[in-house]
């Protein structure tokens, strides 16, 4: 058990967390500047963290290129510092109609959860980590190793913040990221993002035409909303078929008329791209419904690909793109973005969380062979290779023992499909504080954090930091 009394920090933690949650720290390249390279939101969140660190008397505080921040405690001449890496940026809100409250107006409801974008991923954990480190500082405990609390602002996009941080501050061998569930992830799958392009066209003489189709705006989110506009389908039959389809699939949707054009929307269930099996991809459901109608040309190719080949296929088993192996398990497949605007270039983004058996170049060749109507596939250079530390690593064992000292039991351990900043350290892991029996609300509507997790969460982080500092 911890020798530090952390109960006294609760009210200050909640106050600072509430202020952090109010900041819409979504990347916005259109408003990027030298001072705010990812837009004003992420920079405001970083500035807030730096301000409270200075308020609370931390001595070693700074930023790197306005992209990442750091708060260090412990011996400055340490040759083996320990990293604790978090992020304050959040994913966009693309399903605002499903939110019961404003995503950036934090609300505590009767269930003792605080609701806001970023509450789960990962601002509550950011503030728990901050106060855990503050508690260690305030207690004036001796540290064998320097603790480097590193705050990123681009985790939900390209991780360029961390690239610059490590280039300037040096690499780390040991550490963890308290992101997500309390599942000690000694392995993380690789990430491959493929952008598929095609001519979004309908034959001139086609009786049914797809005017546009849109879903998603972030590659690491399974989209919960999709909209399509088309012409040439009788509305009466369409309405009955659509109502029946929504009922059978347990989704919701709307149908409206705009002159001679019909507009359909589908509301699915958004979730994190690392867990596509837990959501309902609105894009594939809407495309699947439309495949029963006689679209022609690339409109048909697009709908068949998204609505048949990729529909209800979270592990790429039907498409054939998912590859599995014993160490990292199955590859997951997410259709993150779909764009079809008639007579323009269409776009489909695929996000794979992959095992060691997955080969990106081979997958590109396979897709182009299977789908000759595609004109090009662009591979995202920001993709990540798989990261595997193994359950017998000393850091993994120390973290597991620290967890047991607080909770009385060993943590769940295994491989994670998500990508935490823990993988940036050669012996780093992802190890969050949210109980594994609580469903994740990350990246979804009505995202929340259970305030009852405060005490265990802060005590876990204190115990884990001290265990690594004392024993590595």
From TrEMBL:
One of its GO terms (molecular function) is zinc ion binding. The keyword Membrane does not apply. Keywords: Dipeptidase, Hydrolase, Metal-binding, Metalloprotease, Protease, Zinc. GO terms for biological process: L-arginine biosynthetic process; proteolysis. The keyword DNA damage does not apply. Its cofactor is Zn(2+). Its EC number is 3.4.13.-. PANTHER family: ACETYLORNITHINE DEACETYLASE, N-ACETYL-L-CITRULLINE DEACETYLASE. Belongs to the peptidase M20A family. This is Putative dipeptidase. It comes from Weissella paramesenteroides ATCC 33313.
């Amino acid at each position: 058990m911890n020798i530090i009394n952390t109960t006294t920090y609760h009210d200050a933690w909640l106050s600072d967390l509430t202020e952090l949650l109010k900041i819409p720290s979504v990347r916005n390249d259109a408003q990027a500047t030298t001072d705010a390279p990812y837009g004003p939101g992420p920079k405001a969140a970083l500035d807030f963290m730096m301000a409270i660190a200075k308020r609370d008397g931390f001595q070693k505080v700074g930023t790197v290129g306005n992209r990442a921040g750091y708060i260090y405690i412990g011996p400055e001449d340490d040759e083996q510092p320990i990293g604790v890496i978090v992020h304050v940026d959040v994913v966009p809100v693309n399903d605002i109609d499903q939110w019961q409250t404003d995503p950036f107006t934090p609300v505590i409801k009767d269930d003792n959860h605080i609701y806001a974008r970023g509450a789960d991923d990962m601002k509550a954990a950011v503030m728990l980590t901050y106060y855990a480190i503050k508690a260690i500082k305030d207690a004036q405990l001796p540290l064998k190793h320097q603790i480097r609390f590193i705050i990123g602002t681009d985790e939900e996009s390209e991780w360029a913040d961390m690239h610059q941080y490590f280039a300037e501050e040096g690499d780390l061998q040991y550490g963890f990221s308290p992101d997500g569930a309390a599942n000690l992830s000694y392995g993380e799958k690789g990430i491959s993002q493929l952008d598929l392009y095609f001519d979004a066209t309908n034959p001139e003489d086609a009786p049914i035409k797809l005017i546009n189709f849109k879903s998603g705006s972030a590659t690491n989110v399974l989209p919960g909303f999709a909209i399509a506009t088309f012409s040439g389908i009788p509305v009466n039959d369409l309405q009955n078929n659509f109502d029946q389809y929504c009922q059978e699939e347990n989704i919701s949707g709307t149908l409206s008329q705009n002159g001679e054009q019909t507009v359909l929307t589908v509301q699915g269930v958004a979730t994190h791209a690392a867990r596509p099996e837990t959501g309902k991809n609105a894009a594939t459901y809407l495309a699947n419904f439309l495949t029963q109608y006689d679209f022609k040309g690339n409109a048909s190719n697009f709908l068949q690909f998204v609505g048949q080949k990729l529909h209800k296929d979270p592990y790429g088993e039907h498409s054939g793109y998912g590859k599995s192996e014993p160490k990292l398990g199955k590859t997951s497949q997410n259709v993150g973005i779909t764009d079809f605007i008639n007579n323009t270039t269409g776009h489909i983004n695929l996000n794979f969380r992959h095992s060691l058996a997955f080969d990106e170049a081979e997958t590109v060749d396979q897709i182009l062979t299977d789908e000759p109507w595609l004109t090009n596939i662009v591979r995202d250079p920001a993709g990540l290779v798989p990261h595997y530390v193994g359950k017998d690593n000393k850091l993994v064992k120390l973290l597991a023992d620290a967890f047991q000292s607080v909770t009385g039991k060993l943590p769940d351990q295994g491989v994670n499909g998500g990508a935490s900043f823990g993988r940036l350290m050669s012996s780093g892991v992802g190890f969050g504080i949210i109980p594994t029996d609580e469903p994740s609300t990350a990246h979804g509507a009505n995202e929340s954090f259970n305030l009852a997790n405060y005490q265990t969460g802060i005590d876990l982080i204190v115990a884990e930091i001290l265990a690594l500092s004392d024993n590595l």
